[in-house]
């Protein structure tokens, strides 16, 4: 027993509360891809999921999950022991084809994928160059790695190149010549919704022999003509296919693919190495057959209907972005369905989100440490299955609440 520890933890929680930064869990049951109820049965319109194509409630996906659950509700072990279901191999082969890579490995979550890949591949004397706004799972992967980590300014390839040159000089002075360099970046950044400058990153990776790793968690099923992600997005734009220039493409099954789990696509040697050495892969029970089967069914639907899904997603994104901007909200410009509405102070952001909740709309309030201090925001996401009516109603409500809050603030500051 250590009563002092409990007291200290309590104090820390109190401080979070006083700064409007404490977090609580609100229970929610999704009755469709866009609607959910709380414990009292109150219905909400949800504008905050990562369920970009709305496939969590698609009948084919649900049926695939049901069918695979007849092979057992759990996987019973790690893939290296008893948990290597047929479904896992099938999905890996499907993903390799989809991403045009030699091989794929599934991890239990996208978070685990980033941990397991980054700290397994990077060794002492290696250097990881990581974008300032990378996802927490990438940051944590670099923190448990033995390699040196240099963080470059968000999407700033000049800064990246400067850091690389500085490190090269230092290694020369120390007479170290066995270092490998890694560049790690989100494809679509999870908080700002902007897209990594992949062509420039490839150029730098080639020039300095870096292993280039891109995390397409918010890009797979979301950008690129057929939803293949960042590589395809730039192929559409420039006509140049960068598949071969990216060493590893990480992704998740938990966003557009309507299930749970993470994956990595790349050369077979990398994948075989991870199977042999990556501890989060080796020492954790595999995903259940039904979890994997639902992701595979979602992937098959995406492959079949990509034009329909992506057109809907893009139209919904444009509509919401335009309505909010016309209404005077401070929206970070972009083309992805992640729409950050910058509010500023954490307490005001909380209040905004609570007011929306009263009107039956759920939008997440994102506060530090997820974003820098003073940049608290509503992080609104639209998905392909939102209707035009749902989008216009939500935009109108957001604009009205914003105007009311502004008036109140002006009055208070008068
Ligand atoms: C969501 C996300 C992850 C984590 O994926 P999970 O499957 O939810 O664990 C990793 N990287 C990025 C960029 C993400 O947005």
Brief overview:
The protein has 414 residues and is of the alpha/beta class. The chain has helices at residues 3-18, 59-69, 86-99, 110-121, 136-144, 157-173, 198-207, 230-238, 268-277, 279-282, 289-326, 346-358, 388-413, and strands at 29-30, 35-37, 43-46, 103-107, 127-131, 148-152, 181-186, 210-215, 248-252, 262-266, 338-344, 361-362, 364-366, 376-381.
What does this structure look like?
There is one protein chain. This protein has 414 residues and is an alpha/beta fold. It folds into two domains: 143 residues, Aspartate Aminotransferase, domain 1; 213 residues, Aspartate Aminotransferase, domain 2 (3-Layer(aba) Sandwich), CATH 3.40.640. Helix content is 46%, strand content 15%. A seven-stranded mixed β-sheet has the order 4-10-9-8-7-5-6, sandwiched between helices. Strands 1-2-3-12 form a four-stranded mixed β-sheet. Helix 8 links the parallel strand 8 and strand 9. The longest helix is centred in the last third of the chain and has 38 residues. The N and C termini lie far apart (52 Å). Pyridoxal-5'-phosphate binds next to helix 4. Its cofactor is pyridoxal 5'-phosphate. InterPro entries: Aminotrans_II_pyridoxalP_BS, Aminotransferase_I/II_large, AON_synthase_class-II, PyrdxlP-dep_Trfase, PyrdxlP-dep_Trfase_major, PyrdxlP-dep_Trfase_small. Keywords: Acyltransferase, Pyridoxal phosphate, Transferase. It is an enzyme of class 2 (transferase). Pfam families: Aminotran_1_2 (PF00155).
């Amino acid at each position: 027993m250590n009563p002092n520890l409990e007291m200290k933890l309590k104090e820390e929680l109190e401080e979070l509360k006083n700064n409007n930064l404490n977090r609580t869990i609100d229970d929610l049951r999704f009755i469709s891809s866009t609607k959910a109820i709380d414990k009292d049965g109150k219905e909400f319109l949800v504008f905050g999921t990562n369920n970009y194509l709305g496939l969590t409630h698609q009948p084919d996906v649900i049926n695939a999950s049901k069918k695979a659950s007849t092979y057992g509700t759990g996987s019973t072990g790690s893939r290296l022991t008893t948990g290597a279901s047929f479904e896992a191999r099938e999905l890996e082969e499907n993903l390799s084809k989809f991403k045009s890579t030699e091989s794929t490995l599934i991890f239990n979550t996208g978070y685990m994928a980033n941990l397991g890949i980054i700290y397994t591949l990077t060794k002492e004397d290696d250097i990881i160059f990581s974008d300032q706004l990378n996802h927490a799972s990438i940051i944590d992967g670099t923190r448990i790695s033995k390699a040196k980590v240099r963080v470059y300014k968000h999407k700033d390839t000049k800064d990246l190149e400067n850091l690389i040159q500085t490190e090269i000089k230092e290694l020369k002075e120390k007479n170290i010549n066995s270092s490998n360099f890694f560049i790690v970046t989100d494809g679509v950044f999870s908080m700002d919704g902007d897209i990594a400058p992949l062509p420039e990153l490839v150029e730098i990776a080639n020039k300095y022999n870096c292993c280039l790793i891109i995390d397409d968690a918010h890009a797979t099923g979301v950008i690129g003509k057929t939803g293949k992600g960042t590589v395809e997005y730039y192929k559409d734009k420039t006509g140049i296919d960068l598949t071969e220039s990216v060493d590893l493409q990480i992704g998740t099954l938990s966003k557009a693919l309507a299930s749970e789990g993470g994956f990595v696509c790349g050369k077979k040697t990398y994948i075989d190495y991870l199977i042999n050495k990556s501890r989060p892969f080796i020492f954790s029970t595999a995903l259940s057959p039904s979890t994997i089967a639902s992701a595979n069914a979602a992937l098959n639907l995406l492959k079949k209907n990509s034009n329909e899904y992506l057109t809907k997603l893009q139209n919904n994104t444009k509509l919401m972005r335009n309505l909010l901007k016309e209404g005077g909200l401070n929206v970070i410009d972009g083309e992805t369905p992640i729409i950050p509405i910058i509010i500023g102070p954490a307490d005001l952001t909380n209040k905004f989100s609570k007011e929306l909740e009263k009107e039956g709309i759920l939008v997440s309030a994102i506060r530090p440490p997820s974003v820098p201090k003073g940049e608290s925001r509503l992080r609104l996401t639209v998905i392909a299955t939102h209707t035009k009516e749902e989008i216009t109603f939500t935009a109108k409500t957001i604009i009205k609440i914003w105007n009311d809050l502004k008036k109140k603030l002006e009055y208070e500051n008068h």
